[in-house]
Design a protein that fits this description.
Order of helices and strands of chain C: EHEHEHEHEHEEEEHEEH
Largest sheet of chain C: 8 strands, parallel
Structural class of chain A: alpha/beta
Strand order of the largest sheet of chain A: 4-3-2-1-5-8-10-11-12-13
Radius of gyration of chain A: 18 Å
CATH class of chain A: Alpha Beta
Oligomer: heterotetramer
Number of domains of chain C: 1
Distance between the termini of chain C: 34 Å
Helix content of chain C: 10-25%
Strand content of chain C: 25-35%
Strand order of the largest sheet of chain C: 1-11-10-9-2-3-4-5
Shape of chain A: globular
CATH superfamily of chain A: Glutaconate Coenzyme A-transferase
Number of strands of chain A: 13
CATH class of chain C: Alpha Beta
CATH architecture of chain C: 3-Layer(aba) Sandwich
CATH topology of chain C: Glutaconate Coenzyme A-transferase
Strand content of chain A: 25-35%
Shape of chain C: globular
Number of helices of chain C: 7
CATH topology of chain A: Glutaconate Coenzyme A-transferase
Number of domains of chain A: 1
Structural class of chain C: alpha/beta
CATH architecture of chain A: 3-Layer(aba) Sandwich
Order of helices and strands of chain A: HHEEEEHEEEHEEEEEHE
Amino acid sequence: MSDALDTIKLSNAQIAWRAAQDIEDGAYVNLGIGFPEMIATFQPEGREVIYHTENGVLGFGKAPAKGEEDWDLINAGKKAITLNPGAAFFHHADSFSMVRGGHLDLAVLGAYQVAENGDLANWSTGKGGVPAVGGAMDLVHGAKRVAVITDHVTKKGDPKLVERCTMPLTGVGCVTRVYTSLAVVDIVDGHYVLLEKLPQISFDDLQAVTGAVLKTGETIADLVVPEV
Amino acid sequence: MSDALDTIKLSNAQIAWRAAQDIEDGAYVNLGIGFPEMIATFQPEGREVIYHTENGVLGFGKAPAKGEEDWDLINAGKKAITLNPGAAFFHHADSFSMVRGGHLDLAVLGAYQVAENGDLANWSTGKGGVPAVGGAMDLVHGAKRVAVITDHVTKKGDPKLVERCTMPLTGVGCVTRVYTSLAVVDIVDGHYVLLEKLPQISFDDLQAVTGAVLKTGETIADLVVPEV
Amino acid sequence: MDKTLPSLSEAVAGIGDGSSIMIGGFGGSGAPIELIHALIDAGPKNLTVINNNAGNGHVGLAALIEQGRVAKLICSFPRSADPKVFTDLYLAGKIELEIVPQGTLAERIRAGGAGIPAFYTPSSYGTDLAEGKPVEEFDGKHYVRERWLKADFALIKGELGDPFGNLTYRMAARNFNPLMAMAAGQTIAQVSKIVPAGEIDPEHVVTPGIFVDSVVQVADPKQEETLNREGAVYP
Amino acid sequence: MDKTLPSLSEAVAGIGDGSSIMIGGFGGSGAPIELIHALIDAGPKNLTVINNNAGNGHVGLAALIEQGRVAKLICSFPRSADPKVFTDLYLAGKIELEIVPQGTLAERIRAGGAGIPAFYTPSSYGTDLAEGKPVEEFDGKHYVRERWLKADFALIKGELGDPFGNLTYRMAARNFNPLMAMAAGQTIAQVSKIVPAGEIDPEHVVTPGIFVDSVVQVADPKQEETLNREGAVYP
């Protein structure tokens, strides 16, 4: 099963592409460090999205050319960025006022596990090592919508969409939508609701690799993503 | 007695002059609206004092010439001010961070009553009308020293320095020094300690118009103030 | 992205009866007089207004109160040279008043904008204004718990504004304006000049555009103080 | 008023063993590398350091940790490309770590500077990081109570500074610096340039001088990122 999934599942870039399609024109968005940052690459033409980074920049743009980096102008992932017209700098308390105060339209984060009650685990595997949380526990509160992008299953094939998280929580009941390598799923009233799935996988096969019941609405749309 | 006091007591300007002598070079100071504002007039030569006003200005200077007022540049008393070099503007939350956060060296306020435990009543007579508190309840907390300037007695001759305030409190245990029209008094461990008195009044006469016991230290200095 | 609007009337058109409105300014400095007058023209009533003061004379906030539009005022200092309009209504029991220490008012609004539902402050401890509020001791000192303050709308006054809603202010006219911009469902700013995006140095932006919903230019804004010295009355 | 000092060594001379020190910066951006190196030279140990990270490579905060001067670190994210110095000491149980969510860290520091002893935040509710902290429900949602954070000293990095201690910052190097300036008993700032009083427009001051105790010029400050790419090691 897991092998079969590997041949049809979306790449990270494709998951990012799919998530990018739902970001409306004029949205204020924070993209988590790493994988979620890729979403900005796929911003649809004609839409203006204002990106926020925790370390005090609103309205940043693409990465600078190599050699053009200014290390005072970085994002939360410590990568060099550039500014778009209309950008602003501010300190960390103002930055997290934007986050916590409900001013962001969307935050997109990665996940170790997401539960059907909206709980998210993405900061610690709970296995020791050096703990590090960053801004994740703040980002899951306040943004009007919190979405997750993730592989549908772990490398071992275990479900990442579960009934209850077994790993240390980042936030409680915070996630409202999950974009996976196989499907797009909303979280509504403590249940998963399947919105889209890859046409190559049957509902039953998808349910089999999902750790909680997938409810469905009137229709299940095909999850169609171009090669990117 | 009250009539006799009237002939010897300091004027408001003289009380302000006396308070001004204790403000050290380099101090950050907030002067309450009205009477306390007069203290800035008597800043001793050679001392640089940085004045803070609640409405978001640090480092303001004298009033502008008549006709030169800019009504966007006012103090908490809504009077037009000017800026000294090194001034800064900030919003109200930052301004009260300076107040509440212990960054001011001194706040000087007027008083209806001061109690020997440091309680201050200066915002409401408790007699109805329109209540209005402004920044007084914030200023009494946070400044490293809170001083009061006041007539020693009310117009009716009642003591303003009392054992316990009978009027609505502005703050609890906040006042550390009182400059009156007859004396300079510290508040130490819940008691008044007389530091200076006008040479024209005897200790007993001063005690008679004071509503709580005046303790004394080793010496009582003469309160000597020029005509101003 | 273009948050600019062509007229004051469009800017306030969405404000309905019963709305709560933060209005910037400290006395006349930073008061969005033209937006308030547009609000008077628009007609909503039964408003809750959050402002440091209660207006002066017969313009701006005083005029809004005089027109009987304000059911409740949350402020720190409703006394001043000429707050007659408010005083008369208050003493007649026709307007509700919540008095908040000025620093607490600022912090409550900031907390509303910052997603902090409650905080502790030393201000007002042991006074009548702390009555009924939870008290806690930290490190041997007593503090009063205060709740955040939010509003449906904020009417604020800036100096420069751009299409993204980035704002600067003019001198002490800054006061409550940047805080209120953060704490309202919809923030409407009048500015002396709308400039193209990028013209405000990102280092000098005081209110980032994320806090602002619409920007309208009032090229030569009137000062409450000046209007009152001229004896102006609105409408 | 002249808060300028002629040398880094004088700026850090008052920092003794066992001090708590806030150090500005987010990663290398805004990190006062030269002040940290002067602190290494000065020699105090058993320090508690508050910083968003745990340093990188063998310069700045990482070097301070490597020299065994830091007993405890309060931070949000001690993981990064090369935090080997911290990681090794931590896994060997030789350094204490308090992990704080980044927004809570910023707000706790701001609260320390603003005289707010405690506040409620939704961040970390229901997680391991909220263990032992009071929880309260407001309007049907749960929040965790967090305490202010203060320090004996703050070492921060600005762009321009004047003799009054007024500061500006450079781009995203602002980050925690203005907050830490507010929350320390003594705030020591390195700036790229000291300018005469009045040269920083009062509208553009980010940290008003009241929050700053001393200012020292480091005309050409090094970036941690650049130093690490060069493989620099301090001392």
